Amino acid sequence: METLKQLAVFVANRPGTLAQVCHNLSENGVNILGLSVADAVDHAVLRFVVDKSAVALHVLGEAGLLVVDSDIIAIQLPNRPGQLSDLGRIFSDAGVNIEYAYGGMAAPDRAGTLFVKVSDLDRAREALRKLGL
Questions:
Q1: Is 35 exposed, middle or buried (0-12, 13-18, 19+ CB in 10 A)?
Q2: 2-68 carries CATH number 3.30.2130.10
Q3: Most buried among 25, 33, 56, 85, using CB within 10 Å?
């Protein structure tokens, strides 16, 4: 388990927007570790986890984009049935709400990363520590 910064970027929902944002990041040496896209009729919210959040915040802000950062938890999970169920129960038992999550498994025999925004970061970390995650 690791606490990371997530960047939520509010953009126009039209062709090429994601490509331009990703280009701006790559041109400045920022690597994308996780991505989620939530769309609406006229806008989208891009959620990024990157390796250089301070650089990304500056680059995207200079491009005129609205960017909001927040703390999330990155959890490495084995790729087997029941992992998400167990995680949900662990957080529920600790009184922690999962506000949203995204990620995935790389391959059937490898662990994957789940990026999770929770209602109480400290309680979530303590619950995960007790389980050795």
A1: middle
A2: yes
A3: 56
Cα 129 from Cα 133, distance rounded (Å): 6
User: What is the CATH number that goes with domain 72-130?
Assistant: 3.30.70.260
How far is CA 42 from each of CA 13, 37, 59, 91, 100, rounded to the nearest angstrom?
5, 13, 23, 34, 22
Which residues, in sequence order, are CB contacts of 29 under 8 Å at separation 6+? 52, 55
Give the whole-angstrom CA distance, residue 62 versus residue 25.
12
Strands 98-104 and 43-50 turn out to be unpaired
1 compared with 36, residue with greater pLDDT: 36
Over residues 57-77, the pLDDT tens digits come to: 999 999 999 999 999 999 988
| Cα Rg, the chain, nearest whole Å | 16
pLDDT of 1 over the 90 cut: no
Q: What's the predicted TM-score (pTM) here?
A: 0.85
